[in-house]
Design goal:
Oligomer: heterodimer
Shape of chain B: elongated
Strand content of chain A: 25-35%
Number of strands of chain B: 10
Largest interface: A-B, 33 and 34 residues
CATH class of the largest domain in chain B: Alpha Beta
Strand order of the largest sheet of chain B: 8-5-6-10-9
Order of helices and strands of chain B: HEEEHEEEEHEEE
Distance between the termini of chain A: 63 Å
CATH architecture of the largest domain in chain A: 3-Layer(bba) Sandwich
CATH class of the largest domain in chain A: Alpha Beta
Structural class of chain A: alpha/beta
Number of domains of chain B: 2
Chain lengths: ~450, ~150
Amino acid sequence: MREVSLAIVGGGPAGLSAAISARESGLGGTPPAGGIVIIERGRALGGILNQCIHNGFGLHIFKEELTGPEYAHRLVEACVRLGIEYKLNTMVTDLGTDTDGAKTLTLFSREGAERIRAKAVILAMGCRERPRGALRIPGSRCAGIYTAGLAQELVNMKGLMPGKTVVVLGSGDIGLIMARRMTLEGAEVKGVYELMPYSGGLKRNIAQCLNDYGIPLKLSHTVTRIEGQEFGRGESSDGCGRLRGVWTAAVDASGAPLYATEEFTACDTLLLSVGLIPENELSKRIGVRLSEVTGGPLVDDSLQTSVPGVFACGNVLHVHDLADNVTLEAYRAGESAARCIRGGAGAFGVTGGVRRIGLRAGRGVRYVVPNEIILPAGPKPSAGPDAEPGAEYTAYFRSDNVYRDVYIRVRLAPEGSCSDSEGAVIKSVSKRIVTPGEMETLKFSLETGKAATLEVRIEAKG
Amino acid sequence: METSLGSSTQTAGQEQTASQEPRREHRFICIGCPMGCELLVVTEVSEEGGPPSAVSGNACKIGERYGREEATNPTRVMTSSVRVLGGDMKMLSVKTARPIPKGKIWDCAEAMRGLSVNAPVKIGDIIIKNAASTGVDIIATRNIARGSA
């Protein structure tokens, strides 16, 4: 069986960035033995960036505004320059642990099936779009209902227009981007309907994709029914009709439709931009524990999952708003995997001799990444030549609502306490606004103290 | 809220439109951060010809700068995709090499409609020179090799 040091599942922004940092962290070796291999099921590297032809990528990483394909190009060029091996049109269908702890991957491609062994694996599979079935919208099962990302692929990659008159359900960024894209390609976009009282998309996209084109955004509204043409009267000959319109209604504070406000909007296309789900079928195969909130793996601060030697980054871990943040996260996963493979003292694959500090979501916080911080077990000298300041950690999190004029805080939570306990404040930052649509980061330092659990919270001022 | 890309939108250098309407109010949502401040920008053309503008509703300097720019010279990078003949992909993604006046977006979209290019294409290749007389080229944003899609 072929052996590699590091196998990276997925060749999108996360996988490419992780490969670059693993190599730059000194993970050497050349194929066929000892190297890094990226396994990509698509026909090209770059993942979803290839269809994200709009600009706004790269401001943090490359200090200029790039389109998705250009951002992908930069990462692919770096991988090629570093001599990183990649396999295209290849699907990883199984992931397991060998008796000696090495990981085994089952690959399928046109050449057939193959199994490889890797010292470490980085999960970078990204996510999938939440489909109509997950929303349980009643009505016709007609043609003309697309997820926003599928419509994006059809328009930008295949040159096909999904329809002429469009309603968008959900105000996620891809939905907003596609409202503009389809308008520019000649469609009429009648409106974007968002269940929540706030948009899930970036402010910039509301301004430049909707307001620029006079497309209304209806907050606290949803689609209540889908109406298709009757069987046999549709455009297609197989008896399955096309969408002829949707019913929409305002919703109350609990999200329940107010049927008295129901109205009909004629349209031939409904785009769904109602959330992304991390794709973790492979993670489950190898026994990685997943978060019930994000659907992504539980990880420590090195981005190692509950299975030693398996790391996760990008949208497979939690859904990001910005590709730049995916790259930064993946850089960390690549470094950690390289360190794990090198082994020795301080390797994150080593489970003994460390202390695990839990990091959990408290009041106002929907989820936090990482879920654990790993500290060396022995207390460090607090004075003298070996004294070190507390190491710095970063909590990445999303709020569960829109909060104005608040503190975001990391607090100590004494062991066994409930989440309303008031432990000592480790870090506090004042924020004018915190919204679920934009990921928050909070850097804090931690010494090898008494903490058993930390909590990230949003707290009112005064 | 300003919602039109049509001819009513003022762009830089259109002194005539401005002098016919010496005082205009614009409303924008600031895109500087998640706050989304609702900006009110009042532009006035003074006797000397310069259009001074007053921004209110902003919480910081970013809002002031954005509001003034949006009111006097709003620009956007426009992106699209065009057909490729004989390439390993069907569509080529493209963008304006620099931001163009917002009012020119539709003209650029029109210039690209029905256009097709021949493979191979290199990232940065000029696809349309001086698109819609903006002085800005439309360039390729990916490589496309010869092949069949």
